[in-house]
Amino acid sequence: MQGFSDSPEFQFPLFIIFLFVYLAIVISNLTIVASIVLYSHLHTPMYIFLCTLSAIDIAYTSTILLKLLAMLFTQRKTISFVGCIMQMYFFMVFVCSEFLLLSIMAYDRYVAICLPLRYSLLMSTKMCAYLILGDVIGSLSDPILHTVLISKLSFCSSHHIDHFFCDISPLLKLSCNDTSYIEMWTYIIAVVIGLSSLTLTIASYVFIISSILNIKSKTGRHKAFSTCASHMTCIFIFYGTIICLHMRPISMYYPGQDKFFALLYVILIPLLNPLIYTLKNKDFNKVFKQIKLYSNPKH
């Protein structure tokens, strides 16, 4: 794995940077998970989905960054063939799961804002469980064919992966076989999973924004729009980078550019999600105030 630099003097600084980033991602997302689990007033569909999103962010970041940190620390930039295939599979699982979950969360907000009287019926505990179960089953089964097909390729041209993890594009680039059928399957999956999820997400937000425009209070409209803008920014970065990286021929694979875009969804999105979903959230602010009171012996 060639990573970011072959120079030994850059390995430790890169290790420190990625270690702090990884710890920030894990601590911030674990805080969300713990808060939602421990405080009963957060046991609602919106926060259950957010808890699941935080768990996914920790999982797919760990899939990539733990191995990267080990390589930077030991300066042994090798990964076994089985380890590489497994890393690719689980990364695709968690990315697919986040695709589906983001569209579920957008639908949940649509029901809450546009159909408030039917919310308890449409988003019951049973329905939430079915949606999360569908997300899990879909995300676990979706990458199986990709994984099997890529594992059967011959990698005779080189054993040097010009990336910081085992992604689809750099592996296909190394293969001596015809990979056009795998590329075609990637496009099909991207359209079925990625674009359909994005379409559902955008449609939900179109209805949400149209409802917000009917709010008479300027302050209320401003708060609602700022929340939607933050969520949509995060969604477009995630969807945009994934689609740009995988919805194109392997001949257009450029390692430097791909590493930059990969960093956006491996690091930036898991860092942004906790801020976007909790920074101006009244329920989480209440939780954080309670934690401060408990930690201060004077109160």
Structure commentary:
It is a single chain. The protein is mostly helical and 299 residues long. The chain has a single domain (8-295), classed as Rhopdopsin 7-helix transmembrane proteins (Up-down Bundle), CATH 1.20.1070.10. The chain is 77% helix and 0% strand. Helix 1 packs antiparallel against helix 2. The longest helix is centred in the N-terminal third of the chain and has 34 residues, at 81-114. The protein is globular.
Characterize the biggest β-sheet: none
Shape: globular
Tally of extended strands? 0
Estimated share of beta-strand residues:
under 5%
Counting structural domains, the number is 1
What is the string of SSEs from the N terminus onward? HHHHHHHHHHH
Please supply descriptive tags for the structure shown above.
globular; mainly alpha; 299 residues; Rhopdopsin 7-helix transmembrane proteins; 11 helices
List the helices and strands and how they pair.
Layout: H1 8-38, H2 45-74, H3 81-114, H4 119-122, H5 125-141, H6 144-151, H7 168-174, H8 180-212, H9 218-246, H10 255-278, H11 282-295
Helix pairs in contact: 1-2, 1-10, 2-3, 2-10, 3-5, 3-6, 3-8, 8-9, 9-10
